[in-house]
Specification:
The structure is a single chain. By secondary structure, the chain is α/β, with parallel strands linked by helices. The protein has a single domain, classed as Rossmann fold (3-Layer(aba) Sandwich), CATH 3.40.50.300. It contains 5 helices and 7 strands; from the N terminus they run ββαββαβαβαβα. It has helices spanning 37-45, 87-103, 122-130, 150-167, 184-196, and strands spanning 8-13, 26-31, 63-69, 72-76, 107-115, 138-143, 172-175. The protein has a 7-stranded mixed sheet with strand order 1-3-4-2-5-6-7, sandwiched between helices. The structure holds guanosine-5'-diphosphate. Residues 31, 33-39, 79, 143-144, 146-147, 177-179 line the site of guanosine-5'-diphosphate (GDP). Residues 31, 33-39, 79, 143-144, 146-147, 177-179 line the site of guanosine-5'-diphosphate.
């Protein structure tokens, strides 16, 4: 059975100290607030409300962990890009998410949701920069692709791939819609392969 279809909530971490011990390959999901990250996790898991646990008060700024069976997990990172958020909140996000990404050696993939209508915003690029020390492969899902025509969707895909190459950033890119389920099966297939066969990007040596 698909790992995603057996997902269930395990724990929320508000501080680095709350993060559960590693149990096996882990996928992290990230994206700007409102980009459709919770809907994407729900679509992959074939459930309506799984990831909306992160909406319950007190959990919007936590990392939420879901069990995918056989020790595999999914980590739902708090949304980024609150340019107007108070500095203390942004500092909390930086230390929690930065600390998690820097130390989590079981990470086998990072999924970054970007709006298909405006991918690679300043905040998206900043997050990709943050990811540079992480040796796990990246998947960019161009979310809400149902809002684009077929031609516009293909153009967004090609433009995003080109801009990533220009920026020297390696990532898989797919169109994705939680609404019409475009890309759900393909994303699930790739991510389950990463869970089963964790790979490191070439040329990485984890800092001691
Ligand atoms: P999050 O803050 O990134 O977790 O975003 P949500 O999953 O809560 O989605 C934010 C808004 O975008 C909600 O109103 C969703 O209904 C809408 N949304 C999410 N995914 C899609 C999608 O694939 N297509 C469309 N049209 N709307 C979506």
């Amino acid at each position: 059975m698909s790992a995603f279809l057996q997902a269930h909530f395990v724990a929320s971490a508000a501080t680095l100290g709350d993060i559960p011990a590693e149990s096996g390959p882990e996928l992290a999901f990230a994206g700007r607030s409102n980009v459709g990250k919770s809907s994407a996790i729900n679509a992959l898991a074939g459930r309506k409300r799984l990831a909306f646990v992160s909406r319950t008060p007190g959990r919007t700024r936590t990392i939420n962990f879901f069990d995918l069976g056989h020790g595999c997990r999914l980590a739902d990172l708090p949304g980024y890009g609150y340019a107007s958020a108070p500095r203390v909140l942004r500092a909390g996000w930086d230390s929690l998410v930065g600390g998690y990404l820097a130390r989590r050696s079981c990470l086998c993939g990072v999924v970054v949701l970007m709006d298909a209508r405006r991918p690679l915003t300043g905040a998206d690029r900043q997050f990709l920069e943050w990811l540079s020390p992480v040796p796990a492969p990246r998947l960019i899902l161009l979310s809400k692709s149902d809002k684009l025509s077929r031609a516009e969707g293909l153009a967004a895909l090609a433009a995003t791939r080109r801009r990533l190459v220009e920026a020297g950033i390696g990532a898989e890119v797919m169109q994705f819609s939680s609404k019409d389920r475009h890309g759900v099966a393909e994303a699930r297939e790739l991510l389950e392969d990463w869970l089963r066969n964790p790979k490191r990007l070439p040329g990485f040596r984890r800092r001691q």
